[in-house]
Amino acid sequence: RYISVTGVQTCALPISSVASAEVARVAVAGRTAVANGQAFGSIGPYETLTGTIEFALDPRDPHNAQVTDLALAPKAPDGRVHFTADLVVLQPTAPAKGNGVLLIEVVNRGRIGVLEKFNGGPRPDGQQAITDVGNGYLMRQGYTLVFVGWEFDLPPGTIRLDAPAIDSLRQAITVPFILDRASPDTTLANAPTYVPTNTADAASTLTVRDHYWDRPMPVDRARWRFVNGPSGPPRLALDGGFEPGRMYEVTYVATGARLVGAGLAAIRDAASAFRYRADLPVHGTRAYGYGFSQDGRFLRQFLYDGFNVDERGRRVFDGVWSHIAGAARGEFNQRFGMPAASSVLLTPLRFPFTTEDQTLDGERGSLLQRYRASERPKMFFTNTAVEYWGGGRAAALIHVSPDGARDLAIPADVRIYFLAGTQHEQAAFPPRQARGQQKDNPVPQREVFRALLGGFHDWITRDVPPPPSQIGRAHV
To answer: In the chain, which residues have pLDDT < 50?
Structure first.
């Protein structure tokens, strides 16, 4: 493996832009040599940059109209909404030797995943020094790896976004949760900043059910209570305790709203700035967006909300790869949204499901309904058995009609692949007992991923079509 050691640290280096730019500043706080300066084949050595990006969104710009509640967020004297995000970059020290591609991973709950998925290294836990980049596969290919914070509801130390607070908002919200073991109390991890306006409000409710299709049954208000003060993640206690495996939902009037959709704008504007500007410490000629699980759902929301076009009307990502997202999206751009929510069973699937127009119950739409042909990226959608038959992600809906009766045409700029026999994430070998009855599935995915990335890159850069979609069919 290639091991990274700490290199020379730099002071903060603000990179100022013109006043109208979406990225107002990039501050590089540190540089470290990757693998002690060892060369990765013909690409040469890599360096790690860490720092922050400051964004500035103009609520009057029509390209920002889709950011929910942007007009309610506090504005700077320039009339824009400013906020910052963490930044981590691994790039060739001689950029001209790289392949020119910004591989932008939408980090999963603030943690980097591509070094594990493609390089076989461990998954870095947050922003700490990247000490192991595995076998260096992505570096030998010449990619510039970019990680930008997009999620606000994460602990310090992760790659996160400091989303603007909107203190004026009060709204009743419903927070679902399921416990793995019995407990007298629990923290609402899905809503860590959304505290109740009145912990004793008699109108707050708690319900429970055993199956998703069951009618929620109310729990007597006298039996449960909020047990923390007005700050910190909300915490509930229940007389007799919460039972494992049951589906609970608590509803209360909350405060602590954040500009949730700022995360979508951050990914858009960072990718655009690093691609189209030459005055920043990171630059590429193409940009690919990749995300898995939560972040695959994020990218589906990103496409649906029109963020693949920047404020100047330019295409942001040439390619988007959404992995193990199924047909789901998420609470990434709504008032009191909960991006951290991990149970998509409790997050209803949102129509539309496909990249092309479809109709359901009189509603018509598609994931790409906001784009002209020149603005569409090439797209990979990859899923495992879990997304087809478990977890509520209903992956078949991306290529089968909603009634399951017929296969849908897959457009020429889309590939859908089913990684048969694998689980949501590749497990370690030998397999270990997890939460379920069966042991984890260690069937490897890494070699398939490398092959898919090669095909993805050739498709975008040389117009060489990758293999046809490989999926189950409604009719054979």
So the answer is: 1-20
